[in-house]
Structure formats: C-alpha cells, structure tokens
C-alpha cells in the first residue's frame, strides 16, 4: 500500500516480532541467489523433505509443456519454457492498483481479480464497505513495450453486491462493476483463479510477485524471492500459524499490500500482507523505521482463506457469496444456485413433514443389510466401521448392544459426534425391483436410537431458525434402492417394496444437502452400474455416507440441538456382481470435490486452465477405494483389491464423470 502525498514507508505493514525477524534473516542468508553445487544439493534435499512436496509435484505441468518444471522446484535448474513470459503477462493483467481516498490525498494498494467481477486485497487496504464504496480499481497502469505509460482504466467497486472482510487473516473480497467509466468491460483483464488446497509451493521454491509498489505503475519481481520454512517449534513460540501464513525471502523492495504471490505455473500461493524487517529495524507499530532493511515478506495462504470462508459459509452470507464466485471461477455450479434449483424442483418445504416414530416391532424380523449378498464375497459392515467404533465415534442403539439400524434391505450406522449417518449399506436386486407407487414424503425419527442422533424438522425447516440457508433432507440410501422383493405374489412383493421405500424416509437415513445430486447423479450412476451387472443376477451393494472433516462449517446456532457441522462432500462405494465369480468395486465422491486431494493428484489444472464447465458441472468424480478410506477412516479392505481404478497410474486414479460411459468398472 502506497501514498500519493507521502513517499515515506510508513504505509508498509510490518511485523512487530523481533524474534521472527531474526529467524527469517537466518534462513534467508543461508540461501544466496547464486549457489554452489553443494548448496543446490541442500536445496534439493530440503524441497524433497517438505511435507507438501508430493502434492506440489502433481500441480506441475507435463514435461512436454514445461520440460524443466521438476528441476526448478528442487533447485537444480532455472531454465523454463519461453511461454513463461507470455503467461506471466496474461496473469499480470488481472492485477490492479486500488485507489483509496484519505485526508490530504489518496492511498494506494494492490488487488487482483479472482472470480467473476470479484477482487481480492488486504483488510488493511479496504477495511469496511463504506470505505470501499469510495474506492476504485485501476487496471492497465503500466508501461507498454515501448516504455510508454498507459492511463489506468478505472472501475468502481460494488460492496453492496459482495463485500467480505476478515481482520485476523487480513483479507477482503469486494465486487467490481462490469464496465469502467469509459465502458471498457472488466472481463478483458481475466482473472487469477484460486486453488483451495495447500501445497502449491515447497521450501526453497522461487516465487514471483506482481504489484503496484508505492502507488507506482505495475511492476514484477520475477523469481526474486524464495519460500522460507520456519522451524515449527519456533513458529509455535511466536504464535505463527504456518498453515495460515507463508514466508518468502526478498532482496528487493517489499511487495505491495494485496499483491498475488505466484509459483512458476502462475498459480496464486498467497496474498501478500506484511514485510519482515531486519532485526533491530522494527520501528513503531503502524510506522516503519526511517531506513528499514527488509529481509522477508509474509503472505496469507490461499488454502487458509478458503478454509475460513468455508467455515463461515452458512453463518456469514457474504462468505457464501464469495465462495459462489470462486466456485464459478473454477467452472463449478455455485452452491447457492444449486440449492435454489433443488428447492425449486422439489418443492420440499411445501410437502415434507414429520410424523411420529413407528413401533420398533416393525423390524423385529428384519435383517437389514446382507453381508453375503454378492457370492462368493462376504462384506461385513461392522468391519468397515470398526476403526471409528474403536474411537467411540459410533452411536449405540438404545438397547446398548448394537450399532446398526436394520431396515428392509439396508442398514444405517450413525456418527455419534456429527449426528448424521456415518455409513449406510444397501443391497439391490435389479431383477426383483418393484416400483412402490406414489412417493410418500413423510419423515420420522427412529425409536430405536436416541433423538439426539437424528436431527429432525427443527434442523431442516427454514421457519425454525434464522439461518440464511435451508437444507434438503438428503437420502443416503435413495428411496428406490431397497424397493425389491423375491416374493412371487405380486401383492406381497408390492407391500415389501413399499416398506423399503418408507424406511428410507427416516432421519437416520438423511444428511443435509444443498445440491440435487441424490436422486439424479447418484441415481443415474446406480442405474448404470446395475446395467453393467451380470445379466442373470443383477445384484449391487452400495455403501454411502458423508465425508466428515474437522473444518466443516457450522450451521444452526439458534436451532434446537444446534449448532451442527455440515458435511460438504459425500462418498459412495459400489460393489457389483459383474460375473458369476467376479465381483468388482468402484468408488465415487460428489459435492465440494475441490477439497479432495486426490482430485489434484489427477492434474486438474494445467497452468491457468481448469477443466471445462461441462467437465466440472456435476462435481462427480470416480476415485479409488483407498481414497475413500483416507477421507473417512473406514476400512474397505474387503473390497480394496476389487477396485480396477486403484491399479491405474497415480495421475489417472481420480477423474471427472461427465456421463456414465466415463465410469471405469
């Protein structure tokens, strides 16, 4: 951030930790720009030791596009493809100067476009919506190839449309008007899409900063800084969260507040926000030393920004609006748009209602899920959830002796802490399906398990809380899956089918959903898999559940029994009888799949080019059984060896499903 009326450095936000200055100076001095072979060897070893190294490798482009990509990140080479400069110019177009009026003149900071008409900068550049409404974003203020300084193209900010700020993280998102004062369209300047996962840089890797330092025309520090990894013990003492902040050395003027910090693939690693002065050069809070010497910079990790936004998604409406635009930038359908489509299509709130629990005698002779349904395979349900049972994460039934709720042809196991299903398991006999007739949208609690483990209408109905969103009651076992019967008598078979359908309308089979995939994407998938099953015995077993993460967002603070943490992704493992002696397995994830590490191992991004809108629209991927185990903590060892996807090379083990012909089984 710079000043038009005062060219001192008092506007640079500086760390106030002498210990941090000492620590980063020590690391920075150990890495000169020109290094000996021994020094390169040390850098290579340090990069490989970084816990994010494997994921960083997966984000590199292919050798055909960038032959020296691997060598650069381990410090063996500085060579790169000539298109590096062209792509850098494209990335730089999205960076702008932010003009902030103040007493006696203007302040300037840096910002950059990250989504459809969405700008990212620091909280200390734009701290509130009223201030932002008086500011403008100036694009193209830079020297052209002939050295001529171009006039900036000014766009007004629209905080009344989108404005999210967080002082602790020092981030602000704000909407921008679609046209400049002169009618220039904003989309001309492109955007720098944000990738949510951590791991886009490793210790010692070079980074680039595009900036408007001190209110000057746009400048770039190309690979003039290196990632610095602090000692975790020291970071703990200094109360620095290394999962939120990243440090990088510099021997140049510090990057402007709000500038993007980028790796060699022009992916944004961090939002620059602080300079780290040399020891003894701290100055006073709010004012840098008269002649500071800067040894490093600090940025906010993009992954940390996403994590905070997701945590506030259902409690802070503006956070949800920002995430919608970031999703759209990646080609995904915005969650709020999907929710509106779901409510409009189903009209759920109008006709779904609660009824009193059924008498448990209904299931006295019902076995539920059959572990021996697919001969000659046996898949014991308890073995699958045993790791979580050992951690006391599985809710017991009221009789104290069991954990599985048996329904007609399926069973459900409840997560004790999250109070939604941990896993459901259903057997499907494709040759004995019987349509149950008209859908009965009546939901009930199950009297066999405590009410606390089955959120009901108090959770789902909009009128019973002040939350800005409403969730659908999402079937984990879809309502048609258990609707089959081996009985030859048509009336008796229909009655059994209807019992199976009614059983799916229990809160022990429901999880909150904001998308329409349950009966559409999942249903199409299961129908396709049944079609692939053995002709004489169309049998299929489906295991389904949410992916529970520690940082899932909260919802329903004012609701009875709240708040709850809301799962954003769901998984499915399908096992089908492909031949008389050959069962096979396939694993799938749907939902906020941008948070699945396996997706990034599949090289989703090539430079700045994500998958197409059509490829990402459904958020449905096929992955490996092992990936599901990693995400959930469940044990699918009984079917792990049956997964054809698991035998593929690592970069193809996770892939988008655009239509059912893409499924590998």
UniProtKB/TrEMBL annotation:
This protein's UniProt keywords:
Endonuclease, Hydrolase, Nuclease
Tell me which residues make up the DNA/RNA non-specific endonuclease/pyrophosphatase/phosphodiesterase domain: 406-642
Gene3D superfamilies cross-referenced by the UniProt entry: Extracellular Endonuclease, subunit A, Trypsin-like serine proteases
Q: Is the keyword Hydrolase in the record?
A: yes
Domain ENPP1-3/EXOG-like endonuclease/phosphodiesterase, first and last residues per copy: 407-643
Q: Which InterPro entries match?
A: DNA/RNA_non-sp_Endonuclease_sf (IPR044929), Endo_G_ENPP1-like_dom (IPR001604), ENPP1-3/EXOG-like_nuc-like (IPR020821), His-Me_finger_sf (IPR044925), Non-specific_endonuclease (IPR040255), Peptidase_S1_PA (IPR009003), Peptidase_S1_PA_chymotrypsin (IPR043504)
Q: What SMART domains is this protein classified in?
A: Endonuclease_NS, NUC
The GO terms this record gives for MF are: endonuclease activity
Which protein, by its recorded name, is this? DNA/RNA non-specific endonuclease
């Amino acid at each position: 951030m710079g000043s038009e009326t005062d060219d001192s450095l008092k506007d640079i936000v500086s760390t106030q930790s002498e210990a941090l200055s000492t620590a980063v100076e020590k690391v920075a001095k150990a890495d000169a720009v020109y290094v000996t072979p021994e020094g390169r060897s040390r850098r290579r070893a340090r990069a490989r030791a970084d816990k994010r190294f494997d994921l960083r490798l997966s984000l590199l482009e292919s050798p055909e596009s960038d032959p020296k990509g691997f060598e650069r990140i381990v410090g063996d080479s500085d060579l790169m493809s000539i298109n590096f400069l062209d792509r850098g110019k494209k990335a730089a177009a999205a960076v702008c100067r932010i003009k902030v009026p103040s007493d006696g003149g203007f302040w300037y900071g840096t910002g950059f476009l990250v989504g459809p008409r969405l700008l990212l900068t620091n909280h200390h550049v734009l701290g509130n919506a009223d201030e932002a409404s008086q500011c403008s974003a100036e694009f193209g203020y830079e020297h052209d190839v002939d050295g001529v300084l171009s006039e900036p193209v000014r766009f007004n900010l629209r905080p009344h449309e989108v404005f999210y700020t967080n002082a602790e993280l020092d981030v602000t998102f704000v909407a921008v008007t679609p046209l400049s004062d002169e009618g220039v369209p904003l989309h001309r300047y492109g955007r720098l899409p944000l990738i949510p996962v951590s791991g886009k840089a490793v210790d010692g890797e070079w980074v680039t900063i595009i900036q408007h330092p001190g209110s000057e025309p746009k400048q770039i520090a190309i690979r003039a800084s290196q990632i610095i990894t602090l000692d975790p013990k020291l970071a703990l003492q200094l109360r620095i969260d290394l999962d939120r902040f990243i440090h990088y050395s510099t021997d140049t003027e510090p990057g402007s507040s709000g500038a993007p910090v980028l790796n060699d693939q022009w992916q944004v690693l961090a939002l620059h926000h602080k300079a780290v002065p040399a020891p003894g050069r701290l100055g006073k809070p709010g004012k840098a030393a008269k002649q500071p010497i800067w040894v490093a910079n600090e940025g906010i990790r993009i992954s940390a920004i996403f994590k905070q936004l997701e945590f506030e998604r259902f409690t802070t409406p503006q956070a949800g609006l920002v995430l919608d635009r970031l999703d759209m930038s990646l080609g995904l359908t915005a969650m709020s748009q999907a929710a509106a489509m779901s409510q409009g299509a189903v009209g759920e709130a109008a006709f779904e209602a609660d009824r009193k629990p059924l008498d448990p005698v209904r299931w006295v002779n019902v076995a539920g899920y059959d572990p021996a349904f697919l001969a000659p395979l046996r898949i014991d349900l308890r073995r699958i959830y045993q790791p979580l049972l050992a951690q006391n994460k599985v809710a017991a039934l009221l009789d104290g002796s069991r954990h599985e709720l048996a329904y007609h042809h399926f069973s459900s196991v409840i997560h004790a802490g999250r109070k939604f299903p941990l896993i459901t398991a259903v057997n499907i006999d494709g040759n004995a399906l019987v349509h149950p007739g008209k859908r009965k949208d009546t939901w009930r609690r199950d009297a066999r398990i405590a009410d606390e483990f089955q959120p009901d209408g108090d959770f789902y109905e909009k009128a019973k809380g002040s939350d800005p969103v409403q969730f659908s009651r999402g079937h984990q076992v879809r309502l048609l899956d258990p609707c089959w019967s081996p009985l030859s008598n048509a009336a008796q078979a229909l009655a059994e089918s209807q019992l199976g359908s009614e059983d799916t309308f229990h809160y022990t089979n429901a999880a909150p959903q904001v998308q329409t995939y349950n009966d559409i994407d999942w249903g199409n998938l299961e129908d396709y898999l049944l079609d692939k099953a053995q002709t004489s015995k169309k049998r299929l077993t489906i295991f389904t559940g949410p992916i529970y993460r520690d940082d899932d967002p909260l919802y329903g603070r004012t609701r009875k029994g709240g708040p709850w943490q809301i799962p954003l992704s769901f998984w499915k493992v399908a096992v089908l009888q492909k031949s008389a002696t050959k069962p096979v397995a396939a694993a799938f994830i749907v939902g906020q799949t941008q948070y699945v590490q396996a997706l990034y191992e599949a090289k989703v991004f090539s430079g700045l080019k994500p998958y197409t809108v059509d490829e990402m629209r459904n958020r449905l991927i096929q992955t490996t059984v092992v990936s599901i185990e990693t995400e959930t903590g469940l044990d699918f060892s009984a079917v792990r060896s049956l997964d054809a996807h698991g035998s593929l090379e690592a970069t193809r083990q996770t892939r988008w499903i655009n239509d059912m012909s893409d499924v590998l089984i």
